[in-house]
Amino acid sequence: MSEQITTNLPDKATGQTEAGNYFVSNYPPFSFWTPEQVADALAVLDRPAPTDVDLGLYVHIPFCRKRCHFCYFKVYTDKNSKEIRRYIDTVLHEMRQYAATSYLQDRRPKFIYFGGGTPSYLSADQLKELTDGMKAIFPWDDAVEVAFEAEPGTLTENRLERIRKMGVTRLSLGIENFDDHILELNNRAHRSEEVHKAYDYARSIGFDQINIDLIAGMVDETDANWADCVQKTIDMQPDCVTIYQMEIPYNTTIYAEMKESGKSTAPVADWHTKRRWVDEAFAALESAGYTVTSAYTAVKDPDRIKFVYRDALWTGADLLGLGVSSFGHLGGTHYQNEANFGPYLEKMEASDKAGAAIYRARTMQGEEPLIREFILQMKTGHVDIEYFKTKFGVDVRERFSRQLALLADAQLATVDGTIQLSRAGLLQVDRLLLEFFLPEHKGARYT
Ligand code: SF4
What we know:
By secondary structure, the protein is α/β, with parallel strands linked by helices.
């Protein structure tokens, strides 16, 4: 191959895990979202409602029992029930304001996502209050998916029953690892015994879909333990398995410790090892009858098991993001809410205007919507050429011919009637996606 695939990711030279973001979740990068563009997001709300764009709701629950050492989200481990009630009231107030705008009035969500933080940190009563309130504002009758993230140690039978009653169709369990020593060392709140208890009860009350999250490369992970985690996952027979490769962004406890001790390498496995672990997990899952459907997921029955939230977002659906630091996307403009708890509450409580909590935004311009959808579709390992021709009038094989030739030369993809990533390409797709960014976005710190 005549030209190397160059990225600004830290594993380029050595393969060691250094500080920085690996996972690409949106485009353009967040560092290009600005307070100056908040006016664009607010202007969208005055437009007439579109008739051909699906709507989703994302509700951010920023509370956790403990802060995991690898966590890069803004989470709060010290809020009491009074503060949580206030937060729920504020999210409902925020939602009511949006529901009164011409862009969102009378629209019905097709999918709903409760993310965090830990949504299952809320008590059964708090969950009821939140979801009854939400349903009164945006009825869920037409929603095809209600997804809910849960930390196994919070899932009492009472709480699981409430979650089921809320209409949750996809329960996602953040298990991450089955070894108590590794869970403890990484400051994870739950232990393996709680995993099995929660899973068995969740199964018995009949969720449509249960997903298990794992992380390849937590501190102290070994070949033997990883193989054991994969086997235990297969034994549980979840509908879907999601595996992330451990990254160490700058706002993690692990990075703070690295900085203090003057280390540039994180105390976790290198990227080659993490890719190998995911590769081995995918191979074992395939042998057990699962199908790999993206760089991170394997599902038991791909005809039945869908992830509507992900697929709708990746193809340009509107997402109304609610709550502190939540991300949304309306009418071609990305936005993010105020990232700190107190200021979020204060801004919302002081205002009767929709969008009062938005602190930065980015309206996509020129080729950005095309690139966004292209890179997100690459994460599935397969790009539908006709989709891009129909939607954008562009043959992506021509538009990205230089980058695709590099991938093909390195045997990371094949390009003919379609674009198909090889397994090696899929396992490092986030690293490769940076090649497809516009030049002005390439050097961005991806946070
Ligand atoms: S449970 Fe998730 S959101 Fe909460 S601290 Fe751990 S990684 Fe962060």
